[in-house]
Every structure is written in C-alpha cells, then in structure tokens.
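Here is the promised in-class demo. Please do not try to memorize the tokens; focus on the logic of going from shape to residues.
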C-alpha cells in the first residue's frame, strides 16, 4: 500500500469514528504532550475516546521512523514530534541531534546537530541525550547529555540561542550525564544546571538565555531529577529533589521557602517528586522513601514517614513499608502510592502511613534490578510502559494489580549490565497525544493509535 493509500485509509477510519462519536453525543478531547510526563509533568493523560483493551493481533504502527541512540523521550505539540538522539563518531566523540517529525506521517521536518564528547560518563550508558524536549509555543528547548542547551524554532530548527553548562556556568558533569529537562514558567526557563557558584538551579530568560536568578549550592552534584512546580500553601513552589535533600523555591526569584536534608549515595535521585493533596513523595534507590506533609496555609513541609533504601543497613528486596525506585516515577492515587522498586516489584503503600499493602512481580514478570516502568493515568486506568518494550493497561487499587491487557510496541535496545531475561532494556518515557502513543528506542521512533474503534 502506498503512502497516499495509507493516508486515505487512515482518514476514512478517523471520519467514521468521528461520525459515530458525534451521533452518540460524545465529545472527544485531543491533547498534546509538550514536556516530560506531559503537561505540568503530572503523568496524566486526559483524553477520552480511548480503546478499552488491546486487539488480539496487537497495535499496528501508523508510522516508524529511524533514529539514533538516546534515552530522551519524545514531546508532541502543534502537529510535530520532537526527539533527540546521538551517534558516535570516534571513541567518545559524538554528534547529538534534535529532530522534528510530522506527527501524522513521521516524516522528518528538520534536524539540528551539535558536537559533544562523552568522556567522563559511565560509558556503557553514554549513548545519547536523556532529557525530554520542552515545547513552548514557537520554541522547543533541547538538552544534550553533556549540558548543551539549545532554544530552537519549532518550524525550522533554527538556533535562537544556546548555552553550554560547562563553559557558561562552570558545571561539573555528573557520572550519568545531564538529565533535567528545562521547565518553562512564564518568561523563565528553569534548569537543573549544577553550576558554580551557587547555581545548582538557574532561571534563564526563555527568549534570550540571559540569567535571571541562580539558587542552591553545588557542593553536591545536581543529580538526575526533573524540576516541577506545585501550587500549595498559598504559593507556587518549585520542588527540587537533589542528592542533598529536598528544596522548595519561589520560581519567580529562586528564594528558598523550605529545605529538608536527605542525602542519597552516588547522587542517584531520578524519580520525579509526586504530589496528591497534602502528600509530597520522594523515592530513590539508595535513599529509600520519604513522604512529606505540605502545610496548607504557608510554604512549609514536615516529614510524615520514611522507608529505608539501599544505603540503610539491613535493607533487602523483602523489606516492607518502603519503595526505592531507581528510575521509575511512582503515582499517588486515592490515598495509595504505587511504584516499581529497585528489584522490579510493583508495590502499593498506604500514603498516610507507608504501610505495605501488596507487592507483585506481575508487571515485569521477573526479579529485575533497576526494573523500570512509566505510569500514565487515563481516567480510572493506568497505561504503563515497562522496560521490556510492552504497554500494559491496568487498574491499581489497595486490593491489587489488575491487568487488563498488554502488547509489545518496540524492542528494548538500551544497554544493561545486569543479568535479565532479556539482554537489553527500554528506559525512554513515551508521549501520549491525540489518542496515540509515540515511543522510541535506539533504532526507531514509532506512533500507535490508541483511539477506541481504531
């Protein structure tokens, strides 16, 4: 079937679906996915008209486009898909690249390349960029593994401005590279830089790249987390999870509202902080679990409960009442925390007490160190991408994990040094946009329809 024939077929299916939905009096919503974990970085997908289960034959890709290596998940906005990748040139020398693709066809619209060198990184994982592109109107912000930040025109890929964290801000690149996707807040672009002096976090003018403010000492490395803003305690709070603890800042000025010390070995703080009502939850491999209670009236927080991590004596995979995620960001739903711990167990904890409700290997189907899954909520269901390249549809409750269905999307290709059932893993967060999922590995990026009736 030719490209024009495929387009005609897809158009016919879409038209039929729209007519059916209109006759039923149902309004469908279409949403973009402009940044890490979607709008607001919340891991919530609000679209309706989504399929109830996967077809027996699996999902069929509407397109597949070759890409190079990288961990950075895609962003989708304004009819375009944005992704970054890398190819080795010689030894540790590499060329990183930003790409824009047509959302409907997968056609490459433009590319923008820059040279870099991965010397100093954990080389087995030095395959490409980590940070999801951030789209803001007519600009997309992309970040390379060694701290190359570029503001690009979404239509052409033209460089509007760029910064090098090392040369411009005196950053020391941590062992696993720069990972914090820039966060747009008004006219500010908030970045996890790790610069000196006192520039762990910086706000730049999103239009020019000029510095607005800097905050927090870089006596410890920046870590590998994602800045996120919550409105609570009567103010907007910028939450930074770093290897020395938790910091809440005023996103307008960088002023510190509150801090709680919590040191994590090796700087491995990856899972994004998640909030539900008064609860603010942090988890890491070595630091374990920390649940904070946020003050409802003023910007303040206190420790509600804690669970051990691998840096704590006696911690094992059977230790109850904790969650020590390495990469996977957990979710809080209806008063319970759900997440993947370091050995690949899916766990449920009572958000108020930290008590373990249940644990299961059903999601990954193996005991797997550094086991990873990405959770996205859609209504009462969760769409979960595990590190085996599978998409799992499930409901989560304090009674257990209820799998509705699963289907294979792409091959896991990311390098991995531990024994597992499969030799490689998939550690890239997908995008959910316009009733489709867009997912990548080190060889291709693909788009699959999740529309009901497709």
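The designed amino acids, position by position:
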């Amino acid at each position: 079937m030719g490209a024009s024939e495929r387009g005609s077929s897809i158009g016919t299916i879409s038209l039929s679906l729209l007519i059916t939905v209109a006759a039923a009096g149902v309004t469908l919503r279409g949403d973009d996915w402009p940044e890490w974990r979607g709008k607001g970085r919340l891991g919530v997908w609000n679209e309706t008209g989504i399929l109830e289960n996967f077809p027996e034959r699996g999902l069929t890709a509407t397109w597949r486009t070759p890409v190079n290596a990288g961990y950075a998940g895609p962003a989708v906005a304004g009819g375009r898909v944005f992704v970054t990748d890398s190819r080795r040139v010689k030894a540790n020398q590499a060329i990183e690249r930003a790409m824009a693709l047509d959302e409907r066809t997968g056609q490459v619209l433009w590319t923008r390349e820059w040279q870099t060198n991965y010397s100093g990184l954990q080389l087995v994982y030095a395959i490409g960029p980590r940070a999801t592109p951030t789209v803001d109107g007519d600009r997309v912000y992309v970040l390379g593994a060694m701290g190359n930040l570029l503001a690009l025109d979404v239509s052409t890929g033209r460089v509007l401005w760029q910064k090098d964290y090392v040369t411009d801000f005196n950053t020391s690149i941590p062992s696993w590279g720069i990972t914090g996707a820039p966060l747009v807040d008004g006219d500010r672009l908030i970045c996890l830089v790790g610069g000196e002096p006192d520039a762990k976090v910086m706000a730049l003018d999103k239009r020019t790249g000029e510095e607005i403010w800097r905050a927090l000492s870089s006596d410890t490395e920046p870590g590998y987390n994602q800045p996120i803003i919550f409105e609570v305690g009567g103010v907007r709070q910028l939450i930074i999870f770093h290897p020395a603890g938790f910091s809440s800042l005023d996103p307008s000025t960088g002023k510190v509202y509150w801090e709680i010390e919590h040191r994590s070995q090796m700087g491995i703080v990856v899972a994004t902080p998640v909030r539900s009502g008064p609860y603010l939850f942090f988890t890491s491999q070595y630091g374990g679990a920390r649940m904070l209670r946020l003050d409802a009236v003023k910007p303040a927080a206190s420790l509600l409960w804690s669970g051990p991590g691998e840096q704590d004596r006696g911690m094992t995979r059977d230790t109850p009442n904790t969650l020590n995620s390495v990469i996977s960001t957990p979710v809080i739903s209806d008063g319970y925390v759900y997440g993947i711990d370091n050995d690949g167990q899916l766990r449920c904890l009572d958000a108020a007490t930290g008590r373990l409700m249940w644990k299961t290997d059903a999601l990954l189907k193996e005991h797997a160190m550094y086991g990873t899954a990405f959770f996205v909520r859609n209504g009462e269901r969760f769409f979960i991408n595990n590190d085996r390249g599978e998409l799992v549809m499930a409901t989560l409750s304090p009674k257990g994990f209820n799998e509705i269905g699963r289907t294979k999307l792409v091959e896991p290709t990311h390098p991995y040094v531990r024994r597992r059932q499969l030799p490689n893993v998939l550690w890239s967060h997908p995008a959910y946009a316009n009733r489709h999922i867009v997912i990548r590995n080190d060889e291709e990026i693909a788009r699959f329809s999740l529309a009901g009736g497709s």
